[in-house]
Amino acid sequence: MTIRHFSLLFALAIAGLIASPASAQVRLNLATMAPDGSIWMQALNDAKDEIAAATGGEVKVRIYPGGIMGSEQDVLFKIRSGQLHGGGFMGYAISKICPDASALMFPLTLRNHDEVDAALDAMREFLAATTRENGFEVMGWTEVGFSYAYSMKPFSNLNELRATKVWGLDSPMLIELFSAANIPFIPANVTDVLPSLQTGALETVFGPPTAAVAVQWHTRVRYYYELALTYSIGGVFLSSAGWQRVPAQHQEAVKAIFDKHCRLLTPKVRKSDADALDFMRQQGIEAIPETAEGRADFERVAALTLEKIKGTVFSADAWDLLQTTLKALRGS
Length: 332
What we know:
By secondary structure, this protein is an alpha/beta fold. Helices cover about 50% and strands about 20% of the residues. It contains 13 helices and 9 strands.
């Protein structure tokens, strides 16, 4: 090979390197209401670190915790405007991103964790498809947990509940339930609940035990009702545009890592809820046992509510799939 030929090949090689730079780094910006240091944020941070390692730093995730980016409604707006690419959601946003997930959260539908696990496994593909139709991609589902009622006054049936000052969230499902039960309720933002309990403007509130302790509601109530009224689910989602930012060769890994850490979170949430209930009892909060009569009272109202919201809040297909799974599990 002559010097001239060598020089030509060397020049072509250099040109090739210039024309084919290393893959550009992609950063995904996510927001969540989960407080920094919470078990939900720990899971997101673990996923973030693993994604960076698995993609050789080509995909990095930045997470804004604790409502820094505003409410879930605010976060959805910022996602649609391109300021954020996704989030970890536990409330309002789920009903917008995947309305059919509300079937899992209908009052008194799921009775225990075995039913939760079976129902979610049966519905994962269905929920992923409906989420995609709404412009989002599911990275993983997270447990929020079973919610209980906490009150300044004891109650074990609807009549006794009606005699208290009941908190009402801005939820179509909850509004219909209270309407069917003829329960007057007082709307309030989550951040206003503790001051309202302190002043007596509210007497009965609802939520998972871990959350109730985290926001200090347990300091202002004296009772909790052992009937698990609802189950709540959350999730990690990317907008379709955010998902397309992830290089094709990394998409499988990114989704698998998020999903893994969401699944690992579930037993931690369940233990945390059990510990929170124990803590409440140690603080002198009295547990009011569930009774067959009390459950029947609430189930009657739930049945009336279902007829109004099935096909609107969530689809009939979602409800039918859920019921098929539960009937098979219960043998009925």
